[in-house]
Design a protein that fits this description.
204 residues, alpha/beta, Rossmann fold, eight-stranded mixed beta sheet, 5 helices, 8 strands
Length: 204
């Protein structure tokens, strides 16, 4: 866990969710979401940690959290429905801290959740989507989004094949951007340092 973050809990309806919070002096904030809860996804995932670190270096307040039923978060997996409520609760918590959530960042399942948040948050201007699993989860029915999607994917990612990803991106936003990390698979094994450099380059 980053030394810049504090462990804490916040409420999502009747549930108590576990999170890691970093409050920066400035107003801008990001919520970071993790991979699939049923396959080991949680807030301390290495890619999620890379995203948190990248935003913190740029002066953002960051909140990464465990979806319901993961780690010390109460509740149970809800097939993406309740997880949308968890995401909205996280953004509302940051707003209650006087922060403006201008970014949503998600990895794999987390990217799917962030894209599906509706109604969208008016303050969010960018969606950082790492390895959205378009060959695994249902992305067909996602309506266009108002925030700019910025996608990072490895060219060896079988869950997010480039041809299918490019097709899906055209329906999300006409100005969406795609950044390909050569030699990386869905899990960024051996590629976390290069991912961190790319994330920083994309965000700046």
């Amino acid at each position: 866990m980053s030394t810049l973050e504090d462990p804490f809990f916040f409420k999502a309806g009747a549930l108590r969710l576990e999170g890691r919070l970093h409050l920066a002096p400035g107003p801008e904030a990001v919520v970071i979401t993790h991979p699939h809860p049923l396959y080991g996804g949680e807030l301390d995932n290495p890619v999620v940690a890379v995203l948190a670190d990248g935003y913190q270096r740029l002066g953002y307040s960051t909140l990464r959290f465990n979806f319901r039923g993961v780690g010390a978060s109460e509740g149970a997996y809800d097939d993406g429905g309740g997880e949308l409520d968890d995401l909205r609760a996280a953004t509302e918590f940051l707003a209650g801290q006087g922060k403006r959530v201008t970014e949503l960042a998600g990895y794999s399942f987390g990217a799917w959740i962030n894209l599906r948040l509706g109604p969208p948050l008016a303050t969010v201007r960018r969606l950082l989507l790492v390895a959205p699993p378009v060959a695994y989860l249902e992305f067909d029915a996602i309506p266009p989004v108002s925030a700019e999607p910025v996608v990072i994917v490895g060219d060896r990612d079988s869950f997010a094949p480039l041809d299918l990803l490019r097709q899906r991106m055209t329906s999300w936003h006409p100005a969406g951007r795609l950044h390909v990390l050569p030699g990386a698979d869905h899990f960024y094994a051996g590629a976390l340092d290069r991912l961190a450099h790319l994330v920083e380059a994309v965000l700046t």
